Amino acid sequence: DWRTGNVIEEQVARIREQVGTDRAICGLSGGVDSAVAAALVHEAIGDQLICVFVDHGLLRQDERRQVEEDYVASTGVRLVTVDARERFMQALAGVTDPEEKRKIIGREFIRAFEQAERDLAAEAAADGEPIRWLVQGTLYPDVVESGGGSGTANIKSHHNVGGLPDDLQFKLVEPLRALFKDEVRAIGRELGLPEVIVSRQPFPGPGLGIRIIGEVTEERLDTLRRADAIARAELTAAGLDGEIWQCPVVLLADVRSVGVQGDGRTYGHPIVLRPVSSEDAMTADWTRLPYDVLARISNRITNEVPEVNRVVLDVTSKPPGTIEWE
Ligand code: XMP
């Protein structure tokens, strides 16, 4: 495609000029945006780029393995993994407000990068140069929805825009800032990334932290992770991945309802399925999933995840509902 080809050429030239001979780090989330941003920057500056994967403990089942295997195997990019699980759990303890969660997660992300940067600088003591550049896969809709566009209200602080701390020590490289998701995917394909990465559905940087309505705890994360894995497996098995934009699975951790499971009464939590169809995430409609698929997901979750005794379907378009619940 000549247009994506042009974008790549322009961005590569721009990144080279911007970054020069400095080193850059890029946080990989497992998602399309950061994967394409990193691949683009890798194209421009090669081994000056080091990718950092922060395991914040808010990931879905298997996600860490996928980043370490799929992405690294296909790009040859250098990857450092930071295990920040404990730190995030401590920072999020007792927090229930969505914006506060987002800001904490954004801040801890940057702290984790800074830690990685210090470790890398110490390791490369021979040249002693600090890492000055931070690559982010910020897209146009992220900019607009965080109030960075012209005249729009701040709807949510996306962790990579509104959630940045004031004392940020990095300068930002954001090569996807003018683009929509479909354009980013086209660029990923053009750069030779495997389809399993390029066609991956969006997943928010703050991860499962904003899909637990209420305080984030290890136990709740574990419950949500098992329910989410079932929903995703069934949607994939039904061949529906191409039809839905994404399907957040949300745990209403502070809501309980009475059920009857196995031998008796339970007092468990509801899980919300939020399947949406969208072009660019700016607007969305709820996806009319086949009833038999919904039935399978519901049966499996309530059978296999004892903490959950009710599965509900979100039938709200965006607007008024945003895609994520927080
Ligand atoms: P909302 O909930 O605002 O979501 O309708 C729009 C799209 O953005 C994703 N999302 C995020 N992505 N960091 C991200 O990288 C974030 O903080 C974030 N919050 C929401 C969401 O999954 C949907 O695709």
Please give a quick description of this structure.
The chain is of the alpha/beta class and 326 residues long. It is 41% helix and 16% strand. Helix 2 crosses helix 7, helix 4 (85-92) packs antiparallel against helix 5 (98-123) and helix 9 (218-237) runs antiparallel to helix 10.
> Strand pairing plus helix content: what structural class?
alpha/beta
With strands numbered from the N-terminus, the spatial order across the biggest sheet is: 3-2-1-4-5
Output the CATH topology of the largest domain.
Rossmann fold
Helix content: 40-55%
Cα shape: globular
Strand count, sense and barrel status of the largest sheet are: 5 strands, parallel
Mean pLDDT, to the nearest integer, reads 90
Task: Please report the total strand number as a whole number.
Answer: 12
Q: What name goes with the CATH superfamily of the largest domain? A: HUPs
Pathway: Purine metabolism; GMP biosynthesis; GMP from XMP (L-Gln route): step 1/1
Keywords: ATP-binding, Glutamine amidotransferase, GMP biosynthesis, Ligase, Nucleotide-binding, Purine biosynthesis
EC number: 6.3.5.2
Subunit structure: Homodimer.
